[in-house]
Amino acid sequence: MASIPLTLRVHATGCAFPMCDTPQALDIGADGESGEMLVYRVSGEHRTLLDTGSAIAIWNRWLPAAWGIRSIVNSTVVGLHDGSKWSCMIGENASVHLTTPKCGPPITITAKELEAALLVMGGPTVEERISVVEFPEHPLVGEVMRVVRHNHRIHEIAQEVEEIDL
């Protein structure tokens, strides 16, 4: 039985060619069986797979672009062997510019919407994978030491004197 990946669509807020077919968007998907995430470029009726991988790998590539830390430059379109490259550049006003030659016109996407879609679609997979990981316990053994207040010099001196004659 084939698994159909669920997707969440992030629509473009701007397009380099306003007269092009709608929608202009990204589909962020997750495959329930394999746990892989998929990023599709949607342009009109055409849908092209840009990126695929584990949720952590996709987060590692796409979230820094959404947060304005690091762009994705010259990545290869999955499945196309003609050397088609795409780029996701950091834009101004909390936006991301996506350039996908041969897959659709350049578009602008709101960074917060891209971030939310990535986290929503990858979150359950990451949570499921981490829940089965057993983290080691570190023993907290050793010599127990008395707490000393080094900044209370007068108190320490008073403890050393048994009795003062006035």
Describe the structure.
The chain has helices at residues 55-66, 111-131, 153-160; strands spanning 6-11, 14-15, 24-30, 36-43, 46-54, 72-76, 85-90, 95-100, 104-110. By secondary structure, it is an alpha+beta fold. It has one domain (6-131). The strands form two sheets. The protein has a five-stranded antiparallel β-sheet. It has a four-stranded antiparallel β-sheet with strand order 1-3-4-5. A hairpin with a 4-residue loop joins strand 7 and strand 8. The longest helix has 21 residues, at 111-131. The model has no long low-confidence stretch (mean pLDDT 82).
Observed structural traits:
4-stranded antiparallel sheet, elongated, 3 helices, single chain
Q: How many independent structural domains?
A: 1
Structural shape: elongated
Q: What average pLDDT do the residues reach? A: 82
Helix content: 10-25%
| Assembly category | single chain
Q: How big a fraction of the residues is strand?
A: 25-35%
* Helical stretch tally: 3
Overall strand count: 9
**What pattern of helices and strands is seen along the backbone?**
EEEEEHEEEEHH
Largest sheet descriptor: 5 strands, antiparallel
Radius of gyration from CA coordinates: 27 Å
Q: Which structural category fits the helices and strands?
A: alpha+beta
Whole-Å distance between the termini?
A: 95 Å
Weakly predicted, low-confidence segments: none
Strand order of the largest sheet: 2-9-8-7-6
